[in-house]
Write a structure and sequence with these properties.
The structure holds two protein chains of two kinds.
Chain A: H1 4-43, H2 115-120, H3 125-128, H4 177-183
Chain B: H1 2-17, H2 25-49, H3 53-56, H4 60-70, H5 86-90, H6 95-104, H7 106-113, H8 120-140, H9 144-147, H10 162-173, H11 179-182
């Protein structure tokens, strides 16, 4: 190998270049982070949890942001927990699909299996003392009774949902018919 | 061929039967003991190395299918940070049973070599058979691997939801059912369950 010196010089040059690059990189890295730190601090979420209750700021454009200005990052509200009391709730209106009074975390409801029907199928309800699925759910659209749950009623969570302890985003002053009737003055008393 | 093997075996037998000429009894006993300890340590270390989550998920069959499903469940991540890894549920903890299961696992090595479930489609096609094997095993040993951690006697029923407490008392407490009867598919997705009793 006649160009041994050339190779040696090239190697040396590479080593020097790497060393210089390393040194420069090390020096500049903390400097750049020092510069960016105050910026990051300024951009840090300044909206505490209480801001969720505050009046919408003038420069916010989206109600879902809970009053946090568009340039700021909102701190998310505390996660709500699913009510797992097993106490049946009253229906808010006739024909409302009853809400689920227990947690359904990781229940598999797909083509292969339906975890809800493990207890709520009419065949199993007595063993688990669960309210059986209504017989209407075993009917097809021509009201013919089927042996198993009707395919159009198969995916329980399309209509039946769990409830959480989250605060309602929008106030609701709905009154059911019984309340309305009891508030009416009795006109035909005599 | 045969006479040669026979003469070799006879020579070996004579050597083994004859008392040692050069080595003392103490050396042979102590040496045998130390060699035994080293052999056993190596054997057990290798055995335990095959009993880890990292080993199980080193095959793509396990990593891409069942391990991904496990990740979404409470046995993988939960509030107290206790994780049930693959062997906690799929390999018995007692030594004899563990060795028996490890011998059966040679079939799984065969499956790996010949690619029985090396694609997602093949895995899904065979999923019911694989699952039924595990259900049968857990049914036969009264859900032993569940009970290694979940002991009915240690369950505080008052801290369970009322329906869970009722059902556990009614079916588990009386011994009429075992864990796997109701808790199929808690760590992995279920195959097509049409016609298979759950609970």
């Amino acid at each position: 190998m006649r160009d041994k010196p050339v190779v040696a010089i090239a190697l040396l040059a590479i080593v020097v270049a790497v060393a210089v690059g390393y040194a420069v990189g090390r020096k500049s890295a903390p400097a750049s982070s020092a510069v960016s730190e105050p910026v990051a601090a300024a951009q840090k979420p300044t909206a505490p949890a209480s801001a969720t209750e505050a009046r919408p700021a003038s420069n916010q454009i989206d109600a879902i942001r809970r009053g946090v200005p568009i340039a700021e990052e909102a701190s998310p509200p505390v996660m709500a927990h699913v009510e797992n009391t097993d106490i049946k709730r009253v229906r808010a209106y006739p024909m409302q699909p009853p809400t689920i009074p227990h947690s359904i975390d990781n229940y598999q409801i797909d083509k292969n299996s339906n975890r809800c029907l493990l207890c709520h199928a009419r065949a199993n309800a007595d063993r688990f003392q669960a309210p059986p699925v209504s017989v209407t759910h075993y009917m097809d659209r021509d009201e013919q009774i089927l042996a198993t749950i009707s395919p159009r009623r198969y995916f329980c969570t399309q209509c039946h949902v769990t409830q959480t302890d989250a605060k309602p985003l929008v106030a609701n002053n709905f009154k059911d018919i019984d309340t309305v009737m009891s508030e009416q003055p009795v006109q035909k008393a005599n | 061929m045969w006479p040669r093997i026979k003469s070799w075996a006879a020579m070996f037998w004579r050597t083994m039967r004859r008392p040692s000429v050069h080595y003392s009894l103490g050396f042979l006993t102590l040496g045998g003991f130390i060699a035994g300890v080293i052999f056993w340590g190596a054997f057990n270390t290798a055995l335990e190395a095959t009993n880890t989550e990292a080993f199980c998920t080193s095959c793509h069959e396990m990593h891409d299918n069942v391990f991904q499903e496990l990740k979404t469940t409470i046995h993988y991540t939960n509030r107290s940070g206790v994780r049930a890894t693959c062997p906690d549920c799929h390999v018995p903890h007692r030594w004899t049973d563990k060795i028996a299961r490890k011998m059966q696992a040679s079939q799984e090595v065969w499956g790996k070599i010949f690619g029985t479930i090396n694609t997602r489609e093949k895995f899904l096609d065979n999923r019911l058979e694989l699952a039924e094997r595990e259900w049968a095993r857990l049914k036969a040993n009264d859900s032993l691997e569940c009970r290694n951690c979940h002991n009915y006697a240690s369950m505080d029923l008052t801290r369970q939801s009322t329906r869970a407490a009722q059902i556990h008392q009614r079916w588990l407490g009386t011994g009429e059912k075992t864990c796997i009867d109701c808790h199929k598919g808690i760590a992995h997705h279920l195959p097509d369950m049409a016609g298979i009793p759950q609970g």
